[in-house]
Predict the 3D structure of the following.
Amino acid sequence: MRILITGAGGNLGRAAVPALERDGHELRLFDFRSLPTEHEFVQGDVRDPVAVARAVAGVDAVVHGAALHGVHLATWPPSDFWSTNATGTFVVYEAARAAGVRRIVLASSMVVYGPVGGDGDRWAVVTEQSPFRPNDVYGLTKVVAEDVARFYADVDAVSTVALRLGMFVPETFERYGFRLLFGGVDDRDVGQAVALALAHEPIGGFRAFNIMADSGLTTEDLSGLDADVLDTLDRRWVGTSELVREHGLDPGELVWGRLLFSVDEAKTQLGYRPRYDFAAFLDAWRRGDATHYPFADEDWWGVERPAR
Ligand SMILES: NC(=O)c1ccc[n+]([C@@H]2O[C@H](COP(=O)([O-])OP(=O)(O)OC[C@H]3O[C@@H](n4cnc5c(N)ncnc54)[C@H](O)[C@@H]3O)[C@@H](O)[C@H]2O)c1
């Protein structure tokens, strides 16, 4: 397929481009920053209908990733989140409809769920049926983006697979490993999910899937996590707390969020087979093999807010 990737200069582009290249797709990249790339590149703003119309012309599918996200909350005002993520998504769908593009993979996010249930300090499992309770403007705009997608599926037969992605911004090696338990995902599994989503025909024109690492933790582990997180991990992966101590790490820095995410639907419906999990990380950590996660500490701070 001929595929447009919006916001291709960020983490999603880094994850998706190699996966789609491997599948033999022809890629066109779009971003408002200039990108060094061998692929066809269109520079423009996702809020600009003329630029986006130019970008979608002649493609078979769009991977829509351009957005502000969590890290930008501190530096960008809510109105920029709305214009980039909500209006920008509308502009992409409208351009796709007008150009006859019928297939979109939408980069949604785990933030649509917010801190689910709001049930104090207790751990919970999040499935695709969990309610949307975003608690910041980023989450709100991601909910709106999914609504836009559903609308275009219903009314204009533009189909969408929305990937509610877990965290894959660059992290230290150890924080990367532990977040694979609690909503993190490896770049290479994100790439796999994007490739699978492009090949999927969603029933009714719209489907959303959680895309995280397969943590191996389930509802049966919830009471153990409530009582003692490290103890629960030790019972499943012997020696975990010893490694944490040996490295002088603060467990509070490694575990946060109190949510487990189910990826069962992505596994059964999309054929998603996440390969990078906590066990693989522990194994690499024990061997001192930092190449297991080559993106650690990458100099990534998101898009800087332009001076006005
Ligand atoms: N990285 C994560 O942990 C994560 C987790 C969940 C969801 N997501 C979603 O994945 C998508 C991509 O995230 P990312 O981590 O690659 O972000 P990123 O900030 O690394 O990259 C976003 C890219 O979009 C471009 N961009 C921003 N505003 C634009 C605009 N107005 N017009 C054109 N291009 C614009 C930026 O230049 C940048 O290259 C987003 O939709 C995000 O919500 C990311």
About this structure: The pocket of nicotinamide-adenine-dinucleotide is lined by residues 7, 9-12, 31-33, 45-47, 65-67, 69, 84, 88, 107, 109, 165, 167-169, 302-303 (CB under 6 Å). The longest strand covers residues 103-109. The chain has a mean pLDDT of 93.
